[in-house]
Amino acid sequence: MKEIKTNILLGDCKEALKTVDDNSIDLIFTSPPYADRRVKTYGGIKPEDYVGWFLPIGKQLLRVLKPDGTFILNIKEKAENGERHIYVLELILALRKQGWLWTEEFIWHKKNCYPGKWPNRFRDSWERLLQFNKNRFFKMYQEEVMVPVGDWASDRLKRLSETDKTRDNSKSGSGFGKNVSNWIDRRYVYPTNVLHLPTECNNKNHSAVFPEALPEWFMKLFTKQGDWVLDPFLGSGTTVRVARKMRRNSIGIEIVPEYCEMVKSEINQVEYLLCEGEERYEAGKNKRSAKLCRKAHRRVSPKAVTKS
Amino acid sequence: MKEIKTNILLGDCKEALKTVDDNSIDLIFTSPPYADRRVKTYGGIKPEDYVGWFLPIGKQLLRVLKPDGTFILNIKEKAENGERHIYVLELILALRKQGWLWTEEFIWHKKNCYPGKWPNRFRDSWERLLQFNKNRFFKMYQEEVMVPVGDWASDRLKRLSETDKTRDNSKSGSGFGKNVSNWIDRRYVYPTNVLHLPTECNNKNHSAVFPEALPEWFMKLFTKQGDWVLDPFLGSGTTVRVARKMRRNSIGIEIVPEYCEMVKSEINQVEYLLCEGEERYEAGKNKRSAKLCRKAHRRVSPKAVTKS
DNA sequence: GTTCCGCATGAATCGATAG
DNA sequence: ACTATCGATTCATGCGGAA
User: Fold this and answer.
1) Does residue A207 reach within 7 angstroms of strand C, measured from its CB?
2) pTM of the predicted model, to two decimals?
3) CB A178 within 8 A of CB A220
4) Rounded to whole angstroms, how far apart are CA atoms A141 and A157?
């Protein structure tokens, strides 16, 4: 089995991206800091400056993406003084002028959105997942994200990973061929452009702005094993974590040193635990479950890193 | 009980709107012809002409809406040559320049959306419901659209009741603590900005572009009985039908004579049947149920009208 | 080993208050 | 008058300890 690479780059992505080769990335999945959000970690880009701030990055992304690759941008405009900001709309228009095709807009429906009550609006429970491409024709593996038939399941992308495992297993025992795929076709349908996922609560030690199921879904849809995934705003590392799990190579760029170190250390620690686990397993002394490994790497927190 | 008025106007709404008084409408709810759609009826507005075509109408709508009224625009850009059109984004920006506030964007998640399969995209299962206002402060009756609390609560609060009663009693002397009992009583919560409605089945004779539940929801939220509702692109008449049912006055404008006649005739027929029903009921000869009335007016189809 | 409950925690938003 | 900060509001979810 070929080795999977995970490169973590520290720095401003506008600069760090220059070290990435032309036409080398299959999927860009990222969630940049929203305007006026994450002020403490990223300084808070003002809405009126947002497009100007993003465009140089967009130019680099356009350069590094393969012609048949895909760029998924997770973003949502805030409401202020009773009105929605328009910088996201302007960003879409600006990226098109830069040469991107605005292929599709997926909706991420967050059932557990932020609470609150206001006299003039309800809670905001959705975000945009904007799909951009360099070319009208791009790689898309629709069968990889098919969902079980029935209402109970169509909303539950959470279970996708489970069902997919069984499907992969049946595939691996090849020779069944058409029978199996026919049988699958009857029980699975293609999804739509609305994704129904809860946000991950921050009771876990590392907080993520989106659940793992989100990049997982797009990696299944737009990449295969061994492909390259890029996240220029890595944050707590969800994208590369999922990429490793799914055996995709990945590049993550993060400007905050503590986050960067945290992700690196987590990867090392997982490597270590996996090796250790294998050794002990071979020695027959102990069983380290995957569950334990996961627990262990979740304990890595920014605080712990800065202390070291 | 005060009489509810339903005015159906035949003609191009840009002109017909001029007969509507300034500041007289509480809610505008409409689904205009999308670019390149309904070519036969509206001549098919080209995407690049869409904003220019809509702005004069937007100006009239701005004039007739009450200062504390709301304008809901149901729209979705189509995909062409692998790319989403941008005329909706440009329309939002243009309406803002015209003086509208872009207050919110609701998502209508169509559970059973149009079937189909394409190599580069999934089925489109959502539409935009853009909310515009003249003023930052507008009427909103949030309690009218509250929804049952999520399943998590019923499971969790089920067994809380026992301990709660005792706790409540014990603390009642101190004057504190009705907190938990409040939670039990709170079986309804405010909704979010994602509407989860099925598209209407097409088994009726006239097909509508949106289900009755859609205007119904917004009428509950933004109007009271006796208020005025306007739909400048009436189509098959869903908006005024719902308005009548909910005892809101309404104005509907439609450019296609056959549609216009159909709606008018449907209203008359319902009136007639209601009167007839009352008479017969008083005479004790017959019972005409509301169900029957509904059935009767559903039989009115454009075909039937043109034949007469 | 289950299931069950207490609790903390959000890419939020508005109005009021302070400089 | 304008910006900056703060408190109040609200509900789905996962974790951890308890039954």
Assistant:
1) yes
2) 0.84
3) no
4) 17
